[in-house]
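We emphasize that the prediction below concerns an isolated chain of 376 residues; any contacts that depend on oligomerization or on bound cofactors are therefore not represented. The input was used exactly as deposited, without trimming of termini.
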Amino acid sequence: MLDVAAEVAWTHPDPDPEFFATVVGSLPGVVRPHVVRVARPGREPLVIVARLEDIRLETKAGYRTVLRPRLRCLTVVNGGVEGVETAEDAAAALALLRSALSGGEADVLRFLGLPTDSPLYRAATTIPPWLCRDHAAVPRPHWRVSVPDTLEDFLGARSRNTRQNVNRYRKRFEKEYGGRLELRRYGAGFDEDLERLCADLETVAAKSYQRGLGVGFTGDELQRRLMELGLRRGRYLAWVLDIDGTPRAFWDGTIHADTFFIGSPGYDPDFARHRIGTWLQMRMMEDLCARDDVRALDYGMGDAQYKQSYGDECWMDAVVHVFAATPRGLRANAGRTAVTSATRTARRALARMGAEDRVKRIWRGRLQGGAQSGAE
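Result of the prediction step, given as a token string:
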């Protein structure tokens, strides 16, 4: 099966055969890979890279998980469909995948990221019967930025306000901490000590609000094996900022097809006023600019102020589900739809009161506090 995936020049690391095999072999709950190739006379083949797995399909109200039924899921990885150019192509690909639902192999089909202007997104959200469609899908911005030859060129393309902020906080931070700072690089000719790297990242991640959400760096078997694979192939890079000998911030990611795909960066919230995440991002960008094999940086799906400030290309992506027309599948979809509808109503009410951002900050602060208490 993986030989089929090797035929394609994938633009995202997830369908890459070695990367995909590592995920299938390490991610708990995976039943088997599901790779499909359909030959088409006179055209490139249709290729789909997915995995069949047992998951807990989480539905959240804000940052709190409300529902998490156990389902058998056919998951199409990010960028895992090649050869879909028209509405007819998309319908054919969707029919192939939905056959696993009608055949009883899976309760739900999941696309981990579909551009909302793509034929496959339109097919997945319109072709299935109404009761089987994903009414809880939330499109999110996906930011990307070109990587020029120098950091000066990169900053020169940003707004005046952004440039001023970068310079002001950098000078203030370096003046206060001076020789107490140490920048350490991992991968591609630098330190490749996986144990030390994981310890550094854990020190920072344990204090982040992402830990309270159960996302970001966890140091589990899958993350460690993917980091090990990336280090061995010269594709994984990480930057760690030490202050007084203690890790306080990190950025990391993977190079694939001339693009650097970032992981989930983290920083110690005790140093938030110094903008240490921005300081370290500029050191990372400076190194990426000096490389010949990186022409773009992909910030991934999800919005954040730093992505808006530094990104120069944006589109909308969504995680999209299609549910089986079975009692189990329909029940899961109905519960998910009800919770999401109530959450959207609450968010609209908060937005009208101008309180949505404030509530979000308070909730994240509580998550950070919980993560720090757990670490202590």
